[in-house]
Amino acid sequence: MTSQLDKDNLPEHIAIIMDGNGRWAKAKNRPRLFGHNAGMKTLKKIVRASSDAGIKIVTMYAFSTENWKRSQDEVDGLMNIAVEYFHKEVGELHENNVKINVIGNLERLSKKVRESAVKAMNTTAANTGLILNIALNYGGRDELIHAVKDLIGQGITAEEITEQHISDHLYTKGQPDPDLLIRTGGESRLSNFMLWQMAYTEFMFTDIFWPDFEVAVYYEMIHDYQKRNRRYGSAE
Ligand code: FPP
Questions:
Q1: Whole-structure pTM over 0.90, yes or no?
Q2: Catalytic residue (choose from 6, 8, 19, 52)
Q3: What is the pLDDT of residues 151-182, one digit of tens each?
Q4: Which ligand 1 atom minimizes the distance to the CA of 67?
Q5: Quick check: is 122 catalytic?
Q6: 3: helix, strand or coil
Q7: Is 80 strand, coil or helix?
């Protein structure tokens, strides 16, 4: 399936908003967490497919700074899924040379979640294959506030500040900005995701709920991306 992709024009970095777990579960008369568990399976599938296609970086939006507003049951369930993912999947990810990088404000997470995330990052730190950013308690505005605070703390003056300074103080420092954003679940909005990094990202939306998202559709979207004319503000 990767054969239809132009290997010389792959998106280096793909960001994904995995939306629709709750509605997928509701349609089946099941609790929302049933949908999130199914969503974790899709995440695993898409990570593997990304490695297979030769994508360098994938960023998955797992939990936003606004998701704390959900019921305690759902928040706890999502955190348990995160811990399970970091524990159970790290072995296979490590074997496949995947480097896990958890982005977001980890301070508000419970000790258990934070420690499992740090352990997964440490285990895979030297890997040179796909970089898998998992956004957990992540908010684009929160990230920018942190960057500005860091810069002020370092004594950078208003005259000195450049775009590079900001980029270098985000959770994604050193990584290229996403080339492609995919959002499943039918909504066409950014929901506070990578606000700085997405200045010139190509957006693609699908009505498919995340648990039903298939590798074939993913590759089709990458194929469509390859037909886009990226101008970055220039005329040609
Ligand atoms: C959005 O669907 C999805 C989330 C807020 C959670 C995404 C999490 C996973 C796919 C599990 C994997 C997580 C980790 C850490 C490995 P929604 O609940 O907003 O769906 P709805 O819009 O249909 O209600």
A1: yes
A2: 19
A3: 999 999 999 999 999 999 999 999 999 999 99
A4: 5
A5: no
A6: helix
A7: helix
43 close to 14: Cβ distance less than 8 angstroms: no
Query: pLDDT tens digits for 104-138?
Result: 999 999 999 999 999 999 999 999 999 999 999 99
d(CA 229, CA 13): 17
Ligand 1 centroid, distance to 56 Cα (angstroms): 23
Expressed in angstroms and rounded, the spacing between residue 78 Cα and the centre of ligand 1 is 8
Spell out the residues 6+ positions from residue 155 whose beta carbon is closer than 8 angstroms to its own: none
Which residue's structure tokens are 């404000």? Answer: 105
pLDDT in the model for residue 230: 85
Ligand 1: distance of its center to the CA of 166 in Å?
A: 29
Exposure letters 14-33 (e unless 16+ CB within 10 A, then b):
bbbbbbbbbbbbeeeeeebb
pLDDT digits (tens, 9 = 90+) for 20-37: 999 999 999 999 999 999
Q: Which domains does the chain have, with CATH numbers?
A: 14-139+174-225 (3.40.1180.10)
Given 6, 8, 52, 67, the catalytic residue: 67
pLDDT of 3 higher than 80: no
The response to whether residue 20 sits with its C-beta less than 6 Å from ligand 1 reads yes
